[in-house]
Design goal:
Elements (H helix, E strand, L loop, with lengths): L1 H29 L1
């Protein structure tokens, strides 16, 4: 369970960062 919780937190943070990076790249390409 401990590993699962850590994975969820880490994965969640990576996903959030990935989304932010994708949005920024898309906005830059749109320009």
């Amino acid at each position: 369970m401990r590993n699962d919780k850590m994975c969820t937190v880490v994965c969640g943070g990576l996903l959030r960062r990935g989304e932010e990076k994708r949005r920024r790249v898309t906005a830059e390409k749109g320009r």
